[in-house]
């Protein structure tokens, strides 16, 4: 079984202060930490589990600047055999559509039975790259995958719908799955494996390796802005005792205790 | 301008709530652009759906075949690409749902139509489509312009356009199905209902809900102790379930349960959109989070900016004091 996993390195913004830079089109990055996108860690784990079960090869691919090689090395340390970086610095206006086209260009000569991606990136929230890639490659896809069981060329797939309902599909390979968080328990890379991965070569693909015909973005960013402050909670202030007494008072007033 | 299309989403015979928001958005845009809204219904035994939706659009384009009974994005994609090619809508609106996410990027790519996903607002500016999206964990918005084209496609986030009554007299138009079988490479088998757990969080008046801020499963006992002291039940956001710390049936949010308790205490929950849609109907929301910019504070009535582990013990004592002095 030949497997490809597409991963993305993203700014970890869930608990960080996110500020717009002077261009108005990007964020100030120097105080942010970067790591593999959350659902991509699950996609990578699913790819490694499949490789362990069925044998074959696992290639990790990422579009990014040189820092993304650190993320690819984590994938190599965990169990990927080879890694490809597409040089983001060679391209502009990288929306989901253009990203998918570049990923296609990078993997089109590789054999693949299964492609895994995460189901959403926490930076741009698109949830589209995997699906576009599948369409460009002419293979079927399933998104929000919470379980996938592959036997020979058939896959039993569970998609997670709203309200916890599961959609059970039967698919045939080759296919692409966008993986939902929680599907497995992503492993940690051992220190020895990380050291070994540091020496592995990462294939780098740039603009000169990719035929630009037809490669274009669907969307161009005009500006970033801070969401308008609508309704906002009354932030309780004072000592912890005072704050807690206020909350207790509010709860009592509402007749809840 | 050509018609605006809105794709009707249904599941197990019922129209999904989001469809009414989509139609409401479509009517608003159609009015502004002086064009018409078409509701596109792919389904089986669609008479009931047509009756319900008649007032919501200027036209109802109906494709009736049992292949559309359950959602299969490959089937929908093949049928809709034929319909869109023939009808050339100026814009096709699809819900940003598990259904829309599976369908829109592939359908638009197949058609070569510029599209984008998870839009909060949309407007035409001199025939060009501009959308507003939320990025970076909901902390910033982005204004995005789509590549100029006679037709566009987007998925719309829920909660942006309130559903409306509609006072139109939609003309029903039947369309012969371009597709009548599921492809071998992707077949819908069945829906599997979520397992029923020992506690039904939708039945509790007081929910103490915990998120990523829990940090470790071992800390769960602190939350459970607090919840039982104040007569509530523990619920959680997605990361807690992903980590295997709590069962799926305790999860509040789009892929979990929708709850409407009298009191919702959110502890260490940042307030991702997917969580908010599951709890915004609570009467009173109290949020505790270290991050003053956490989106949860835009939804909560009261906020405490601090570490939940500092807040919870004091809060428990104070609530118990108030409880005891009640008489």
Quick structural summary:
The complex is a heterodimer of chains A (about 260) and B (about 325). Helix content of chain A is about 30%, strand content about 30%. By secondary structure, chain A is of the alpha/beta class.
Care to describe what's here?
The complex is a heterodimer of chains A (257) and B (327). With 257 residues, chain A is an alpha/beta fold. Chain A is built from 6 helices and 13 strands. Chain A has one domain: 3-Layer(aba) Sandwich (Rossmann fold). In chain A, the strands form 2 sheets. A 9-stranded mixed beta sheet of chain A has the order 9-8-7-10-6-1-4-5-11, with helices on both faces. A two-stranded antiparallel ribbon of chain A has the order 2-3. In chain A, a hairpin with a 5-residue loop joins strand 8 (154-160) and strand 9 (166-172). The longest helix of chain A has 17 residues, at 38-54. The radius of gyration of chain A is 21 Å and the shape is globular. In chain B, helix 3 (73-87) crosses helix 4 (98-111) and helix 5 (220-229) packs parallel to helix 8. Chain B folds into 2 domains: 4-174, Rossmann fold (3-Layer(aba) Sandwich); 201-324, Rossmann fold, CATH 3.40.50. Chain B is α/β, with parallel strands linked by helices and 327 residues long. Chain B has a 9-stranded mixed beta sheet, with helices on both faces. The model of chain B has no long low-confidence stretch (mean pLDDT 95). The radius of gyration of chain B is 23 Å and the shape is elongated. At the A-B interface, helix 3, helix 4, strand 7, strand 8 and strand 9 of A face helix 4, strand 7, strand 8, strand 9 and strand 12 of B. Strand 9 of chain A pairs antiparallel with strand 12 of chain B, so a sheet runs across the interface.
């Amino acid at each position: 079984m030949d497997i490809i996993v597409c991963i993305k390195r993203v700014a970890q913004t869930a608990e960080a202060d996110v500020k717009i830079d002077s261009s108005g089109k990007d964020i100030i990055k120097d105080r942010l930490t970067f790591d593999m996108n959350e659902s991509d860690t699950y996609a990578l784990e699913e790819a490694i589990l499949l490789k362990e079960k069925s044998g074959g090869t696992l290639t990790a691919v990422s579009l990014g600047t040189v820092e993304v090689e650190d993320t690819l090395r984590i994938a190599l340390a965990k169990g990927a055999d080879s890694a490809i970086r597409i040089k983001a610095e060679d391209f502009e206006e990288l929306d989901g559509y253009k990203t998918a086209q570049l990923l296609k260009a990078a993997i089109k000569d590789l054999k693949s039975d299964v492609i895994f991606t995460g189901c959403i990136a926490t930076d741009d929230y698109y949830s589209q790259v995997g699906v576009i890639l599948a369409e460009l490659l002419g293979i079927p896809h399933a998104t929000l995958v919470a379980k996938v069981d592959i036997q020979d060329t058939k896959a039993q797939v569970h998609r997670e719908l709203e309200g916890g309902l599961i959609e059970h599909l039967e698919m045939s390979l080759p296919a692409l799955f966008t993986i939902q968080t929680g599907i497995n328990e992503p492993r940690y890379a051992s220190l020895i494996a990380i050291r070994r991965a540091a020496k592995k070569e990462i294939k780098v693909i740039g603009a000169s390796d990719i035929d630009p015909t037809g490669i274009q973005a669907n969307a161009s960013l005009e500006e970033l802005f801070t969401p308008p402050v609508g309704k906002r909670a009354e932030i309780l202030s004072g000592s912890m005792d005072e704050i807690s007494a206020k909350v207790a008072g509010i709860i009592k007033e509402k007749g809840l205790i | 301008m050509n018609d605006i299309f809105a794709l009707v989403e249904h599941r197990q015979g019922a129209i999904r709530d989001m469809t009414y928001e989509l139609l409401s958005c479509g009517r608003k845009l159609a009015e502004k652009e002086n064009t018409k809204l078409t509701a596109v219904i792919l389904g089986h035994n669609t008479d009931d759906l047509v009756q319900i939706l008649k007032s919501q659009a200027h036209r109802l384009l109906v494709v009736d075949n049992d292949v559309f009974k359950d959602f299969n994005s490959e089937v929908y994609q093949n049928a809709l690409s034929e319909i869109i090619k023939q009808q050339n809508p100026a814009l096709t609106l699809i819900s940003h749902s598990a259904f829309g996410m599976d369908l829109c990027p592939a359908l638009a790519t197949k058609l070569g139509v510029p599209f984008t996903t998870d839009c909060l607002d949309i407007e035409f500016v001199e025939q060009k489509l501009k959308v507003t999206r939320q990025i970076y964990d909901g902390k910033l918005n982005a204004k995005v312009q789509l590549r100029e084209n006679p037709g566009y496609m987007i998925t719309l986030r829920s909660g942006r356009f309130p559903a409306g009554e509609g006072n139109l007299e939609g003309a029903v138009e039947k369309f012969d199905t371009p597709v009548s079988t599921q492809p071998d490479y992707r077949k819908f088998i069945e829906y599997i209902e979520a397992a029923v757990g020992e506690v039904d969080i939708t039945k509790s008046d007081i929910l103490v809900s915990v998120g990523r801020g829990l940090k470790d499963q071992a800390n769960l006992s602190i939350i459970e102790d607090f919840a039982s002291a104040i007569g509530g039940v523990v619920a959680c956001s997605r990361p807690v379930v992903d980590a295997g710390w709590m069962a799926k049936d305790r999860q509040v949010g789009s892929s979990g349960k929708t709850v409407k308790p009298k009191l919702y205490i959110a502890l260490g929950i940042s307030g991702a959109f997917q969580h908010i849609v599951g709890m915004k109907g609570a009467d009173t929301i109290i949020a505790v989070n270290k991050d003053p910019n956490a989106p949860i504070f835009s939804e909560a009535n009261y906020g405490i900016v601090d570490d939940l582990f500092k807040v919870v013990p004091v809060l428990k004592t104070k609530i118990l004091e108030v409880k005891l002095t009640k008489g």
